[in-house]
Fold each of these.
Amino acid sequence: MSALEPTTLSAERRAGWAWRPFALTLPALVLLAAVIGYPLITIVLRSLSEPEWGVQNYAWFFGAPVNLAVLQRTFAISAWVTLVCVVCAYPYAYLMTAVGPRVRLVLVLCVLIPFWVSGVVRTLSWVILLQDSGVINSLLRSADFAGIRLIRTQTGVVIGMAQVLLPFMILPLYSVMKGIDIRLVQAARSLGARPSRAFFTVYLPLSLPGVYAGAVIVFILALGFYITPALLGGPRSTMLSTLVQTQVLSLLQWGRGGAMGVVLLVTTFLLLALAAPVMRSRHREAGRR
Amino acid sequence: MNPRPENRGAAIELETVSKAYGSFRALDGVSLGIEPGEFMTLLGPSGSGKTTTLNVIAGFTDVTSGKLRVGGNSVVGVPAHKRNIGVVFQHYALFPHMTVGRNVAYPLTLRGVDQAKRKARVAEALDMVKMGDFAHRYPSELSGGQQQRVALARAIVFDPPLLLMDEPLGALDKRLREWLQLEIKRIHRELGTTFVYVTHDQEEALVLSDRIAVFNRGRIEQVGTGRQLYDEPATLFVGRFIGDSTVLRGEARSDGTSTALGIAGETVTAPRRLTGEANPVMLLRPEKLSLRRPDQKAAAGANRLSGTIAEAIYLGSGSKYEVKLGDGAMAIVRSPLTGESFGLGEKVELCFDGADAKLLPDDSTADTTLT
């Protein structure tokens, strides 16, 4: 081919090549279809077809107040976990941007090491810490305080889940914060803003995309938590996944279990759709160097 | 912003200000007085202490020792947000999540200016930098030069008595830079505010400043008008940093009234001598040097050095030659268009009047810190 007539050729060729980048995503798409798409469709179908076709499983779910209470509690616990994670992760992620590379490595490892320990082991160690005769209560008693009930309460569940989910908040926050030009805060100071004002008017708004990203991940992961609430919670802090497990594995009610899963999924999507306009920032490149 | 009192700029006094980072002395006993309403440029190579001085005045950096007064009051220990000083940064530092209008209104909001007044003053400041039509844009939608003009508006909108600028044009291309230099000069004239301007570009310093403070290694080498620095450099460093120059080094002999330098078998003399023991060098400005062919007769009493044309540059208004001297040193000569022209490699004689040679003590930092 001649280098002198590239226009017509490359136009043709470009049309032929346009699909190639998508071809690269094919393995991922196939995998997703197999492990997410197929089971999801199965769940929806079984929730409508077992034991017979119809919406009886959904009617059962919405007809029993206890189910609705558990659904509400699932969202409430997830919201608390998200809040605790934001409060704990924000200063931690900020510290990661402020220190030198060596200290930063230590901070990153502190986030990731628990991440690599099995969830069951971590939750069991929370049992040791939180139980009535556990470390926290022994310390309180030795300091002449009354012991507090942590295990088998909602508080215990929130503490355990927040610890497990903290990395999912810290990492997105850190990635946004490290892109914020800290000199903007200096500029705000020179214009007359005292440090707290400079933070709330400049740094915080620029870090919000990280808060939103982390919050969405943590909230959604928290909705589906099973092991931690099962081990740390009591009967009054049951979450939806425990209920699903009971229906499916103990009572072999696949239809009801599926219906609960679909309800959780749909409600989550609805919440995300409501939150989306708030989270969409006009200038996504805001504060990037 | 409306009624501007005469002479509304603040005076600044630095008295033996030092700043140490561990054993490194970023500022080493800097003393500088800036008049109200003056345009003072802090000029020097990177790491010379000029930006540290600016940060000290702005309140971003604490001094290790020394005194600092702005408008007659000591500001040592006063946090940046209480100093009421406008700062323009090289990186613009506009808030990306706010429109141009809100960026400029920011310092007014902090000061509790009511909305009607705020709007008027924002419009006035934006008009002053010719960005009045851009109030609703976001910084990311502006070019570098536009962003810097908005940053300038934001720094003057609250009427600070002092404006600091840290290489504000450093990231812009040459033409835009030259145009904005004139804009900054105009704004300085209109406001009457004291301006302190940091740059490493000596041409920019000459264009803008009433006076220039030349920094080197954490100290001020000389303070003066551009003309003083060019004609009467106090040190070799200043002479080399401001304008083109030729430095002649050689074996020095001084008698009571004159100094002679022996350079590769030839001798040049200047009718002056240096007090003290320092080793003297001669500094010559390009327009004080002339070239002639070896066969031509020179004026009586003129110094002559033989050399070879190493580079000939046509400048439009004249020509610039680099001449390699017998000892390997380079001389820079500017000659008018009407003069003779010389070709590369041509043997020439470099002539100058000894009275035009500036005798200065040799200073090794003058060579090493220049890039």
Amino acid sequence: MIQPFLSIRKLHKAFGAFTAVHDVTLEIPRGEFLTFLGPSGSGKSTTLYAIAGFQDPSSGDVQLEGKSLLAIPSHKRSIGMVFQRYTLFPHLTVAENIAFPLRVRRRPDAEVKKKVADMLTLVRLESFAARLPGALSGGQQQRVALARALAYDPPILLMDEPLSALDKKLREEIQAEIRRIHRETGVTILYVTHDQEEALHLSDRIALFRDGRIEQTGTGEDLYLRPATDFVAGFIGNSNFLTAEHLETANGAATIRLADGSVVSGVSVNRTFDKGQKTRLMIRPEAFGMERKPASAELAVEIVDVAFYGERRRIVARTATGQEIDIRPTSAAMRSQDLTPCSRQVFFDPAAAFLFSA
Amino acid sequence: MPAGFNSLLPALVLIVLFFVVPVLALLLRSVTEPEPGLQNYATLLGDGTYARVFFNTFLVAAVVTAVTVVVAFPVAWMLAIMPSALASIIFGVIILSMWTNLLTRTYAWMVLLQRTGVINRALLAIGIIDQPLPLINNLTGVTIGMVYIMLPFMILPLVGTLRAIDPMTLRAAALCGASPIQAFRRILLPLSLPGLAAGGLMVFVMSLGYFVTPALLGGTSNMMLAEMIAQMIQSLLNWGLGSAAAFILLVVIMALYALQLRLVGARRMTGGI
């Protein structure tokens, strides 16, 4: 078996009676961009802090190229990190901040100068070298923090919600910057966020945390198209959950009865259900269409409201049992008669819907 | 004339009457008594005995300031990072000590430090020493007593400065590869400079003019300026010489303050408190 680059083994962290991280195991190949995604308090930051050396795990291990990091203090771990808050040294200029990790390693002057210049180019802040951090915007400060973290070529870069203090436009700009830097440097990145869009946009793989455990690990597409649990389905993207009764499963496709009595067959499942078991059917808002297709299932709804959102429309509809659902067909697929409140059928592909236990 | 100047006039009169006039009177006495001329200054600056008192005064103030910084820094850092409920209790204790009578506290140190005092007897009893340590009537005694009194004046401005430092900055320094010593020297120390400068100046200046503690805990061989001035005026009734000594001290303190404003910057200093 190939030695994984960074491996987290059965990491466990308890604060008194509260377990923050519960037997988390992950293997991260060199050069990967892995995101820890999850709601606040799900253990993602605690896991990151254990890798950084800010928190000792209660049990388990963190290994870099087969060697345990736990006995090594933070300042000897050779890990770069960008924090949620701006943590630049306020009394040092941008150039001195970036030079700091090289200075404490007593690298020769010429090398430090060259590296600082390279890093300033990498984050496109060449003309800001002599400024103090206080004279920079939040976005610029985080770019300097990124340059400082990468200055001594650490094998791993940790990022703890680095964009959460920035506004939306700046966030998108720096996301693009981070992707470019990951591509150009090939550094292994562990990134923590609670923002699913950010995770989908940036990462090679996502580990979705919930209550101290990893719910699912996979590419953004895996999590979106093949969610392992209803929590994953609910956390990634938008979703509608309809209560349903499981009737039977054959060849990996289930037949169910919805609350309004209609029967749907051909639903994707990734586990077994008992006959008559209460279940929830998850359908993505954009999986609904206004027209029947060969394999589609149908759902009788009352259209309550239609709003225009540019490339898509957003429809609020109500099922026969009174449940509100969210439908987002492309605007181009809508005809004008679809837009007025009325009772009608909407359609979805059962293979793109998922069945979870209630 | 700026708006609202008139309503500030009473305050101005008060300052002139009670602060400016006495200082001018002091200056006047120093150059007129016993007869007009600069002979008082010539005596003070030319005589080896007086020079030694000046030197000793600065030595004690410098040692006290240095020791106070070393003791106050960890306390201030602890107060800055601990939960605020606990910190305010400790603050209360520190303030309470400031409110306790100075003379009482100094006499308490005499009881602790003298040859047959609590500290010497305890050390003898455990067998760490077999002769009592000379802890009183010397520089050691003055330093211990004065550091104790000066600590709050250093801790308070320092806590203000240290609280403004994000502890995450130090974690960032650690991950940059800085050892705890490097992080302290390159990050924490420079960032705490405004508080250190404010507290340091306060302690140094207060120490220069201190009377009670050096008089009670110090020896005759290391007399400080305030004691000498008291002697000149009370015992020798030489108001001219005493005034000149006080004026020299004032000029030195003003010069130090000006120097510090230049080095640290007035805005950062007042902002640090």
